Amino acid sequence: MSESTYAVTGMACGHCAASVTEELERIAGVTAVTVDVDSGTVVVTSDRELETVDIRAAVEEAGYELTTEDT
């Protein structure tokens, strides 16, 4: 299992969190997504290492910006 934390800007509500979660859950290998709108962080749990480019693409597809990876 792998768990990584990312900073995402632009999220302001539960709908934002749901959109980001939905897009990230489409990535092969993702087993869980936890979004904290207040802190602007997203924790992604997966059964393998994920490429940051895939995470960034999913977040951007949801309409937000991935700013950092805290791992």
Would you write up a description of this structure?
The chain has helices spanning 14-25, 52-61; strands at residues 2-9, 30-36, 41-46, 65-69. With 71 residues, the chain is an alpha+beta fold. β2 and β3 (41-46) form a beta hairpin. It has a 4-stranded antiparallel β-sheet, covered by helices on one side.
Q: Which secondary structure elements does this structure contain, and how are they paired or packed?
A:
Layout: E1 2-9, H1 14-25, E2 30-36, E3 41-46, H2 52-61, E4 65-69
Antiparallel strand pairs: 1-3, 1-4, 2-3
How large is the radius of gyration?
11 Å
Relative strand content: 35-45%
Query: Average pLDDT value?
Result: 94
- Alpha-carbon distance between the two ends: 13 Å
Task: Indicate the percent of residues in helices.
Answer: 25-40%
Low-confidence stretches: none
Number of helices: 2
Assembly state (oligomeric): single chain
Biggest sheet strand order reads 2-3-1-4
**Care to count the β-strands?**
4
Brief rundown of the structure:
This protein is of the alpha+beta class and 71 residues long.
